[in-house]
TrEMBL record:
EC number(s) recorded for this UniProt protein: 2.1.1.198
Domain Tetrapyrrole methylase: 7-205
Organism: Maridesulfovibrio ferrireducens
Tagged with keyword Ligase: no
PANTHER family from the UniProt entry: RIBOSOMAL RNA SMALL SUBUNIT METHYLTRANSFERASE I
Compartments where found: Cytoplasm
Main location as per UniProt: cytoplasm
HAMAP family linked: 16SrRNA_methyltr_I
SUPFAM superfamilies listed in its UniProt record: Tetrapyrrole methylase
Gene name linked to the record: rsmI
Protein name: Ribosomal RNA small subunit methyltransferase I
GO cellular component terms, semicolon-separated: cytoplasm
């Protein structure tokens, strides 16, 4: 995998199950001249488990990323290659690395993604809520006002919402989501790919029933708004207008709208989609 030109590999690593490391990721981590790691001790343990020895590290986390950029660019100017990893999953997905990748690209360094495990996508694939369109909010802000604004802006799109939350703040965040978004289905995806992996389904109106004793890494998926009772034609056209913004094909739009309402088949909605397109 070595590159003749200075290269930054952005390498996805397991969320918890070591078996999820790809052969390509393993080879790149073994061949890179240096590893840029969010937590060098944690990445060191990963490399030990992969039987990769003798690697040099540069720590790169939220508090030092800006200061590290010049040092890393100098390393690339000297002809070196580096692999960027986060503590788990795909780098930059609510983890440090964006500013470095941006600076490297502007500096002419070759950027190569090495895809693999990603908590938001993993959660969407198994939670049973509509997987797209979705918006990923990363870790939720601590202040209620900032959280409220995020939910207001992205909730209005009708998309599925995915975010990370700390266990100590989970019920508080779900309460804010209920206040802003109304009653929607949600799934708490806990300890993804690990021994105690768990998917806890509920509705935002029942946020107080969520256990305060949940442990581990938590990804939350909140589904799009669902209309209770038979939807009116006016409501159907409103949802169609929302879904048409995604640019999807009429059949996909029809299926997504039908999943969000009662009393309408995908075929019936499709007729309304074609009617809307004809009249627009």
């Amino acid at each position: 995998m070595p590159s003749k030109s200075p290269t930054l590999w952005v390498v996805a690593t397991p969320l918890g199950n070591l078996g999820d490391i790809s052969d390509r990721a393993r080879k790149i981590l073994a061949s890179a001249d240096v590893i840029l790691a969010e937590d060098t001790r944690r990445t060191g343990k990963l490399l030990t488990n992969l039987d990769i020895k003798g690697k040099g590290f540069i720590s790169l986390h939220d508090h030092n990323e800006e200061k590290r950029i010049a040092k890393v660019l100098e390393f690339f100017d000297e002809g070196g290659n580096a692999a960027l990893v986060s503590d788990a999953g795909t780098p930059l997905m609510s983890d440090p690395g964006y500013r470095l990748v941006k600076a490297c690209r502007e500096h002419g360094v070759k950027i190569v993604p090495v895809p693999g495990p990603c908590a938001p996508v993993t959660a969407l694939s198994a939670c049973g809520l509509p997987p797209y369109p979705f918006v990923f909010l990363g870790f939720m802000p601590r202040k209620d006002g900032q959280m409220t604004k995020l939910f207001e802006v992205h909730g209005a799109t009708g998309a599925t919402i995915v975010f990370f939350e700390r266990k100590s703040r989970l019920r508080e965040t779900l309460a804010v989501a209920y206040r802003v978004l109304g009653d929607r289905d949600f799934v708490i995806c806990r300890e993804l790919t690990k021994d105690y992996e768990e998917f806890i389904s509920g509705s935002l109106s029942g946020h107080e029933d969520v256990s305060a004793e949940l442990k581990g890494e938590i990804t939350v998926v909140v589904g799009p708004p669902v209309i209770s009772g038979p939807a009116s034609e006016e409501e159907i056209f409103r949802l169609i207008d929302q879904e048409m913004l995604s640019g999807e094909k009429p059949k996909v739009i029809a299926r997504r709208v039908a999943d969000r309402v009662q009393g309408w088949t995908a075929k019936a909605v499709y007729e309304k989609v074609t009617e809307r397109k004809t009249n627009s």
